[in-house]
Amino acid sequence: MDLIVLGILLCIAFSSAQGVTPRCCVETTKRFPLDLLKKVNRYEVQTSSGACTIDALVLHVGDMRYCATPKMEQFLQKLMKRMARLKASAV
């Protein structure tokens, strides 16, 4: 009985530790095909002041993540607004 309880506690501890591990970009690029950028659903900013070692924009396209240079944020914001306007006018 004690071994079962110990096993359960170890499983809980291991799964909790895995949930805390961040998925960090380790390098970035500033060149992406425009077709890919048009498909970006959302993006998030990764900072080096947190658990990750570099600043980056994490672009989400479906289930995929791409690491872009932070300098692309302004361009990406404009592109996403433009795409939203085009979708709204098409309806």
UniProtKB/TrEMBL annotation:
InterPro entries, per database record: Chemokine_IL8-like_dom, Interleukin_8-like_sf
Cellular location(s): Secreted
Source organism, top-level taxon: Eukaryota
Signal sequence, renumbered to the chain: 1-17
Matches recorded under SMART domains: SCY (SM00199)
SUPFAM superfamilies: Interleukin 8-like chemokines (SSF54117)
GO BP terms: immune response
Gene Ontology molecular function terms on file: chemokine activity
Gene: ccl27b
Pfam families with a match to the protein in the record: IL8 (PF00048)
Name of the protein: C-C motif chemokine 27b precursor
Keyword set, alphabetical order: Cytokine, Disulfide bond, Secreted, Signal
Annotated family: Belongs to the intercrine beta (chemokine CC) family.
Residues in Chemokine interleukin-8-like domain copies: 21-83
One cellular-component annotation, GO: extracellular space
Main location: secreted
